[in-house]
Amino acid sequence: MDTELVDPAPFDPWSPRFVADPYPVYAELRARGRVHWFEPTRQWLVPHHADVSALLRDRRLGRAYRHRFTHEEFGRTAPPPEHEPFHVLNDHGMLDLEPPDHTRIRRLVSKAFTPRTVERLRPYVHRLAGELVDGLVADGGGDLLTALAEPLPVAVIAQMLGVPESERAPLRPWSAAICGMYELNPSRETAQRAVRASLEFSEYLRGLVAARRKAPGDDLISGLIAAHDGGDALTEQELVSTCVLLLNAGHEATVNATVNGWHALFAHPDQLAALRADPQGLLPTAVDELLRYDTPLQLFERWVLDDIEIAGVRVPRGAEVALLFGSANRDGAVFAEPDRLDLTRRENPHISFGAGVHYCIGAALARLELTASMGELLRRAPGLRPVGEAARRPNFVMRGWEGLEVEVG
After folding, report:
1. Residue 271's Cα: distance from chain center in Å?
2. Residue 310: how many CB atoms within 10 A of its CB?
3. Is 62 strand, coil or helix?
4. Which of 3, 103, 107, 292 is most deeply buried (CB count within 10 A of its CB)?
5. How far apart are CA 49 and CA 29, in angstroms?
6. pLDDT tens digits along 2-29
7. pLDDT one-digit tens code per residue, 126-137
8. CATH number of the domain at 16-407, out of 3.30.2270.10, 1.10.630.10, 3.40.50.720, 1.10.246.80?
């Protein structure tokens, strides 16, 4: 068949009720079919693990299309001119580039994320996590988001890049403003905040790059400036965009994964008790299970560069597919008892870090940060418990909480 329009009526990414718990709706979508047309965003929703995994690896789809088509050829309208600062910054980062540019930039950046490099960071990450947890304990508790979840990954990526400690305060607000543009149909106000943050972030990083050109240091920015791979150095815009991407992706998902994970543990006291009883044995599987159970990135988009078929449904060139990571990670065809939190789960092919050429370059670092922060909390605050009701952020794509108040018993 050429087309099949399945009305995904329960799918409402702007509804607080849906955002609070999208997983029953995902189950309904999976039961009703493998692909669904969603008119409000004019996207094809893909809810099944097998399809999401396959399409992430399918080179007939891409994060971008300008490497092959103009906007007009692709049947798309160019972004508004007032959004240009955001798109210049975003479109030169490897997340939104396709080969060969993506391959060239990732090859250069990946030198900073080798297993050996990440392993060298282990003492720093654990020491910082311990210091942050000690501060939380000394205060008798507080907001887990602002006391631990945010400062740890921000500090780690900033340390890697060589951002001075005294200049790190704006990084998280800039990142949050820019990432607002990844939500579905962002508002005019969201776009304005993202543009302003793009300009300010870019200006700051250009200054930092200029300083490192004059006085290189032992940091990633200095390394990227000096990096050559067969003569393929980064342009200044690529360098700035890469730094922004690493700062955004390097902490945005980890922040949400930390708070999502602890909220899930508090809601499942039997699992939390098991983790407290055997943290060393359970932490490796617990981190991946928490990433699967309440996925910090719920949706990832791809442009269709050449016609494809999904379950007999023709999805034409120029269309956009919305790959539902949160749904794929609860797919009963892949995960036994998918709606049950099971920290002992060994077979766990979740796709929270993506797949294919855009697989998260910082996945190993994210796991290290999550393991360190959880381990230090389990060790130094064994009686940690929630206080009051947490408020879910209104965002759908980047799933998280406004905060999570805790007290130390």
Report:
1. 25
2. 18
3. strand
4. 292
5. 12
6. 344 445 558 999 999 999 999 999 999 9
7. 999 999 999 999
8. 1.10.630.10
